[in-house]
Design goal:
8-stranded mixed sheet, binds ligand SAJ, alpha/beta
Length: 422
């Protein structure tokens, strides 16, 4: 049997792992990225993003000859679109990259091809945006061209394992398309493969992330209630979650990343009158950086030229991704309020306010604010931190550190969600 050729469009957090896993499973893969730097980096077996295990996998895929890269697509049996679908300034889905990816493959399509959309997209994207572009040259859907939505569901930080182990939802524009896509994913997915329509798969993906956003909003709202009531949110959650049907989420400085803080808006965009809980949850989570800023400002109010040292710029623990990160919002808001800001993040290599070392970040600080729960921060020696800082104050917005150890080193400790914690 001839080797199946796959063209993956977009070599980001989803496209690159997918391309290299396919290459490892014996497919001939062309990874396409319009950024020449990305295509060139991957072609050398290197990676431009941080993800455990990915470097090894990409190097092996390139060395085996199964993964090549380019800035333009070429004819293939299967095309996988894994490009970003960010938000516009007015909270709508920016579908430009998906549209351009479809336009770029349209001239290469031939009978028997399968096109898969992995990018998170508003309901109706396959039918209303992709189908008209892909059938322009006369190919008929379900007869000589197959189209499916297979939303990615992997968690940054665990992408390679989840790509293989997670259950996968496959939505075909018709039954033939779903079946073709099922066969492709069945060759490397160990989880269950669940087939449905393209529109349902589009909705499934958006609802998964909306579910999480709404639950995080509830956690954040409850944490604020606890602060006002003088109750410890974290103890409350630990006890409430002993109930078999309750799973309260973690409160924090807000929701970042390119998924959960974005996708719910795709539903609000389509039906603003109906999607009221979803919108309120988004607004609650988006307001968390301002809450953190307010607490820090109040704590530093008695000082001239206060210095705040922020730990963490990434949107969540143990990743290097700063997209939509609440930490960046906190840094900008504090700076705008006249606080001198330094930030330290061992995973993030560039960005505003960034210090090269922990010491440079903490020197002369009046308050250290933990914004991302990176594992490295648990190894900080509070006694050493106290020596570097001007005032020994810790504000932990993730309830991630060993507060007793910090108190023992002379720190005054505040914790998001703890009303009585001074
Ligand atoms: N967060 C909280 N409290 C929590 C959980 C998360 O404040 O209890 C914050 C995190 O700190 C972070 C944000 O929410 O800022 C999102 O982090 P996350 O780990 O919940 O999710 P993502 O964005 O890294 O990945 C999500 C996943 N979706 C779900 O878990 C439903 C992943 O499976 C999806 O593939 C991904 O979105 C995506 O691409 O859509």
């Amino acid at each position: 049997m001839e080797t199946t050729t796959v063209c993956v469009l977009g070599l980001g957090y989803i496209g690159l792992p997918t391309a290299s896993v396919l290459a490892a499973y014996g497919y001939q893969v062309l990874g396409v990225d319009i950024a020449p730097g990305v295509a060139a980096t991957v072609a050398c077996g290197r990676i431009h993003i941080e993800e455990p295990g990915l470097q090894t996998l990409v190097r092996a895929a390139v060395q085996s000859g199964n993964l090549r890269t380019a800035t333009q697509p070429e004819p293939a049996d299967v095309f996988i679109i894994a490009v970003p679908t960010p938000l516009t300034d007015d909270h709508r889905a920016e579908m430009r990259h998906v549209r351009e990816a479809a336009e770029s493959i349209a001239p290469h399509l031939r009978p028997g091809n399968l096109v898969i959309l992995e990018s998170t997209s508003p309901p109706g994207t396959c039918a209303n945006l992709l189908a008209p572009i892909l059938t322009r040259n006369g190919l008929e859907l379900e007869k000589d061209l197959f189209l499916a939505h297979c939303p990615e569901r992997v968690l940054p930080g665990k992408i390679l394992r989840e790509l293989i182990e997670n259950d996968r939802v496959i939505g075909g524009i018709g039954a033939q398309s779903a079946e073709r896509a099922r066969q492709l994913y069945a060759s490397f997915v160990e989880g269950r493969i669940l087939c449905t329509s393209a529109a349902t798969a589009e909705m499934v993906k958006l609802l998964e992330n909306t579910y999480r956003d709404v639950n995080i909003a509830l956690a954040n709202e409850a944490a604020l209630l606890c602060e006002t009531l003088g109750i410890d949110y974290w103890e409350t959650v630990a006890l409430a979650n002993r109930h078999p049907r309750v799973q309260l989420h973690q409160a924090g400085p807000g929701v970042g990343g390119h998924c959960i803080s974005v996708d719910p808006w795709f539903l609000v965009e389509q039906q603003p009158e109906q999607a009221r809980i979803i919108r309120t949850a988004r607004e609650r989570n988006d307001a968390m950086p301002a809450h953190v800023t307010k607490i820090v400002r109040e704590w530093l109010a008695d000082l001239d030229q206060p210095n705040a040292a922020l730990l963490g710029l990434a949107y969540k623990a143990d990743v290097d991704d700063t997209r939509e990160s609440p930490a960046i919002a906190v840094a900008a808001q504090l700076e705008a309020a006249g606080v001198n800001v330094t930030c330290y993040d061992p995973h993030v290599k560039q960005g505003l306010f960034r210090s090269e070392t922990l010491e440079a970040c903490l020197r002369e600080a009046d308050c250290v604010v933990l914004l991302t729960g990176h594992a490295e921060f648990n190894a900080i020696d509070p006694a050493q931190a106290a020596q570097w800082m001007r005032r020994a104050r810790l504000y932990d917005t993730r309830n991630a550190l060993d507060h007793n150890a910090w108190r023992a080193a002379g720190f005054e400790v505040r914790v998001l969600g703890k009303g009585n914690a001074r």
